[in-house]
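Hello Y.,

Per our agreement to keep a running log of every chain we model this quarter, I'm adding this entry. I've kept the format consistent with earlier entries: sequence first, then predicted structure.
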Amino acid sequence: MPEHDQLLKLSEVPLKQKVRIKHINDQLLRMQLLNLGILPEMELVIERIAPLGDPLQLNVNGFFLSLRREDAQKILVDSIAADHLVDK
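Predicted structure for the entry above:
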């Protein structure tokens, strides 16, 4: 498992980059995401960003979720190789 200093905040990930959730730095947010079935080690893609930069639309296992940028800053992810970029 990568060290935390090698991980990215979800809010810093470019569009269409596939990432894997590694850590959620907020207990309440972690519980909310767990209730939605979103677990550490799940892969996701940022599909869209609203015109003013908030919220982010995520694709997690084929379903879409909107997440505030403030919450995305609390989620650490591991980038999956650049050759795994998702085409539209």
